[in-house]
């Protein structure tokens, strides 16, 4: 069995070897570029929804970011990928790339940047991830580690060895990610310089992120810094490269003009962040006061109205809560959370048909545990046992408290827990 698995693994390695389009080095991938592009297209919209949704207050900002990104993409080793660049409505200072060139940058990172060269450093870095097929390469690494784990576990029942393989897998993945990051830094600077940008923008970007990461161990940004670790090593390498390259454009005036609305609204988002913190501490009165201040500063932000509606719902002020959710839906009808929370409220109010309509819209945009659970409740209320079980199974699979509630509902419907 061990020899068969090892032979299968070696055959996969041989057939999956290719060339990294950026570096020219040998690369292992188990998917074609057409598959990568398809995956990126399929995952782009739900990935945006799950991470705050699109930033729509100032649509010209999206156009600006996309224009910078597209110019850099043309400088890449794969200029013909279907690149897209969008701004997400999230405080977290993040940017990411899906296979096939689908790229996003968060509002929270844009507010930390000072000029267009720093923005170019972010976007060029993500372009390299897509052009170098890092997503496909990481998939191959995970698959290879899984096969090697199977080989090791098939030859022994020793628990210590199985634990060792698990630790080795995590180590290989962490090292590989570091390699990808350094590669993206290096070639991203090339794309920046080819487009005429100052390479010191990449140095300053890493300095900003390293400064922001210090002392963060348990806040909402810590997960981002765990997966995108800034380091002195990256700063040093970027500075060494920048010193050998010509200085270029910063385009600070253009950047400040494009991000003017975003910077003007930062106090409103800060109030909203404080409101969420107060709500997490169950200080409902303070939370409601803070979110009202955020709305006063920027009444067109749907997320503020969602938070207000949820707080009013907690105080059993259903009519006022519904008004807040209606406002959110009107502002952003394509964001899953606006329909989700209004649907939950309608369900609590016994308006099951309206609840079903909203929850189905939300579920169609992004299926989440809450929409599955409450659609299950509505199906059960309508005596549609089979449909209720299907929704409850979806909710139960996500685990947690709501997963336990879904399991309990299924048991009442005569379905044994798995």
Structure commentary:
With 418 residues, the chain is mostly helical. Helices cover 69% and strands 5% of the residues. The chain has 21 helices and five strands. A three-stranded mixed beta sheet has the order 3-5-4. Strands 1-2 form a two-stranded antiparallel sheet. Helix 15 packs antiparallel against helix 16 (318-331) and helix 19 (369-381) runs antiparallel to helix 20 (385-397). 39% of the residues are buried.
Q: How many beta-strand elements?
A: 5
Q: How much beta, percentage-wise? A: under 5%
What characteristic shape results from the CA principal axes?
A: globular
How helical, in percent, are the residues?
55-70%
Assembly state of the chains shown: single chain
Number of helices: 21
Which stretches of 5+ consecutive residues score pLDDT under 50?
Answer: 4-15, 140-176
Structural class: mainly alpha
Mean pLDDT metric:
83
End-to-end gap:
30 Å
H/E series: HEEHHEEEHHHHHHHHHHHHHHHHHH
The strand line-up of the biggest sheet is 3-5-4
Gyration radius from CA atoms, angstroms: 24 Å
Instruction: Describe the sheet with the most strands.
Output: 3 strands, mixed
What secondary-structure arrangement, pairings included, does this model have?
Elements: H1 2-16, E1 17-19, E2 26-28, H2 33-50, H3 59-73, E3 84-88, E4 95-98, E5 102-106, H4 107-110, H5 116-131, H6 134-154, H7 159-194, H8 200-213, H9 222-227, H10 232-242, H11 252-258, H12 260-264, H13 266-280, H14 284-297, H15 302-314, H16 318-331, H17 336-348, H18 352-365, H19 369-381, H20 385-397, H21 400-412
Parallel strand pairs: 3-5
Antiparallel strand pairs: 1-2, 4-5
Helix pairs in contact: 1-6, 3-5, 5-7, 5-8, 6-7, 7-10, 8-10, 13-14, 14-15, 15-16, 15-17, 16-17, 17-18, 17-19, 18-19, 19-20, 20-21
């Amino acid at each position: 069995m061990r020899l068969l698995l090892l032979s299968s693994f070696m055959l996969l390695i041989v057939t999956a070897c290719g060339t990294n389009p950026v570096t020219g080095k040998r690369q292992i991938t188990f998917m074609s570029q057409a598959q990568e592009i398809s995956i990126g297209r399929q995952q782009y919209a739900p990935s945006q929804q799950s991470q705050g949704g699109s930033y729509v207050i100032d649509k010209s900002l999206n156009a600006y970011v996309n224009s910078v990104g597209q110019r850099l993409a043309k400088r890449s080793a794969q200029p013909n990928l279907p690149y897209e660049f969008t701004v997400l409505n999230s405080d977290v200072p993040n940017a990411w790339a899906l296979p096939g060139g689908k790229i996003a940058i968060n509002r929270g990172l844009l507010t930390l940047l000072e000029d267009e060269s720093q923005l170019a450093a972010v976007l060029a870095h993500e372009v390299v991830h897509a052009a170098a097929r890092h997503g496909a390469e990481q998939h191959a690494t995970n698959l290879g580690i899984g096969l090697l784990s199977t080989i090791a576990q098939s030859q022994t029942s020793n628990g210590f060895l199985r634990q060792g393989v698990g630790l080795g897998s995590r180590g290989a993945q962490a090292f590989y990610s570091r390699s990808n990051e350094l590669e993206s830094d290096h070639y991203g600077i090339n794309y920046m310089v080819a487009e005429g940008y100052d390479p010191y923008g990449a140095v300053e970007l890493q300095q900003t992120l390293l400064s922001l990461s210090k002392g963060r161990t348990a806040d909402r940004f810590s997960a981002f810094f765990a997966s995108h670790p800034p380091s002195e090593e990256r700063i040093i390498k970027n500075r060494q490269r920048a010193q050998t390259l010509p200085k270029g454009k910063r385009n600070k005036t253009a950047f400040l003009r494009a991000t003017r609305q975003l910077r003007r609204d930062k106090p409103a988002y800060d109030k909203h962040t404080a409101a969420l913190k107060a709500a997490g501490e169950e200080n409902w009165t303070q939370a409601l006061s803070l979110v009202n201040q955020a709305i006063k500063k920027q009444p067109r932000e749907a997320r503020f109205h969602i938070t207000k509606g949820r707080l009013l719902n907690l105080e059993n002020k259903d009519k006022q809560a519904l008004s807040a959710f209606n406002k959110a839906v009107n502002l952003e009808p394509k964001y899953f959370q606006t329909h989700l929370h209004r649907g939950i409220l309608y369900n609590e109010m016994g308006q099951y048909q309206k609840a079903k309509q909203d929850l189905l819209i939300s579920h169609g945009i992004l299926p989440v545990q809450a929409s599955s659970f409450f659609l299950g409740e509505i199906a059960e209320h309508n005596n549609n046992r089979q449909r209720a079980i299907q929704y409850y199974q979806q909710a139960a699979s996500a685990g947690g408290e709501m997963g336990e509630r879904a399991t309990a509902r299924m048991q009442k419907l005569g379905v044994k827990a798995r």
